[in-house]
Write the structure tokens for this entry.
Amino acid sequence: MITLNKQDIKPVFSADEIDARIKEMAALLNDEYKNEEVYIISVLKGAVIFTTDIIKHLTMPLKLEFIRLSSYGSGTVSSGKVNAVDISLPDLNGKHVIILEDIIDTGHTAQFLTNFINHNFKVKSYKFITLLDKKSRREVNINPDMYGFDIDDKFLIGYGLDFDGYYRNLDYIGYLEE
Ligand code: IMP
Ligand code: MG
């Protein structure tokens, strides 16, 4: 049942907590890449808010690309099949590449994308960064190079994450109470 009643959403990470963690992540990246140019690849739609917030704190020269993958359909259980809706990318040979994702759940999306990049390009370096890491749900052996928060096995919404397309616009992350 879809509910748009805010009282039914249990907050997990507040806007301020997310903001503080994103600044920490950006500082680590600034330190690591210094003045090296990077290609940021943001996975639509879920990572859009995380992406636009974190890049404001990055200080290296960067280019921003968006790709669109989908795996969930309208339910809350991952299908395990990744659908590349739009994966057109520039030439990434010899480039530092950073993938930005909203959440790693089963890991199928991360694995698909990592294989896709490695198969098509010889990148200078590769990092997979996710705001949320739902470790307990992993079905394939893949881990992010950096994550914002690790989370329990709950279906989360807000800050880019959706349920059936809704709730992406919340400035915090929460879950729907049953
Ligand atoms: P994976 O391929 O199972 O790792 O799932 C990755 C994608 O599933 C993410 O990019 C999200 O779009 C979606 N997803 C996984 N868990 C959640 C959740 O708790 N809330 C909303 N979307 C989710
Ligand atoms: Mg996603």
